[in-house]
Design brief:
about 180 residues, alpha+beta, OB fold (Dihydrolipoamide Acetyltransferase, E2P), five-stranded mixed beta barrel, 3 helices, 5 strands, about 30% helix
């Protein structure tokens, strides 16, 4: 048994000849050159063997089909998440359909026949600075009966183009001017 086990001195003696051999100087390449060499070794094949063009094309087609299926699945999941509950049966409105905008504003001018000019004031909070920013816009509104006068507060709704500048109809007069 004593012969089978090696003593620490024997282990050092066997390791010493390997360490004593002169080490070859290691050539250090520039990182870009080393990366280029490592990339040139890889051919893109999993097996590393030479394949003909048909086999590579078949692999590309299979990968594209797999990616297309994954995209389709993902889009269906996103569509299912986007639909709010309770609206599954209602179809999505086509372009030009759906809710029309309703705005409230003050009549600035009622001089033209069947047309009024309405100023719509908007106050909203600035996204970045959080300050209240006030802005206004003027629109031309169709008033069939010439009911509205200057200073009235009116409710208007979006409509088809009625003239070069009119895209709104008068719904009701909310408050008369004093």
């Amino acid at each position: 048994m004593a012969d089978e086990t090696e003593t620490p001195e024997a282990v050092e003696e066997t390791a010493a000849p390997e360490a004593a051999a002169p080490a070859e100087p290691v050539e250090r390449l520039h990182p870009k050159v080393a990366r280029k060499q490592s990339r040139s070794k890889w051919t893109g094949d999993k097996a590393g063997s030479e394949r003909d063009a048909e086999a590579r094309q078949a692999d590309r087609v299979a990968l594209r089909k797999q990616n297309a299926l994954a995209r389709t699945r993902r889009r269906q999941q996103e569509k299912a998440k986007a639909v709010p509950s309770g609206n599954e049966g209602t179809p999505k409105p086509e372009h030009g359909e759906g809710r029309k905008l309703v705005r409230t504003g003050t009549v600035v001018s009622a001089r033209p026949d069947k047309t009024i000019t309405v100023r719509i004031d908007v106050a909203r909070r600035h996204r970045k600075y959080k300050k209240i920013v006030r802005s206004s816009s003027k629109i031309h509104v169709h008033d069939e009966t010439n009911d509205a006068n200057e200073g009235d507060v009116v409710k208007v709704i979006e409509s088809r183009p009625l003239s070069a500048t009119k895209r709104w109809n008068l719904v009701e007069i909310v408050e008369r001017a004093r």
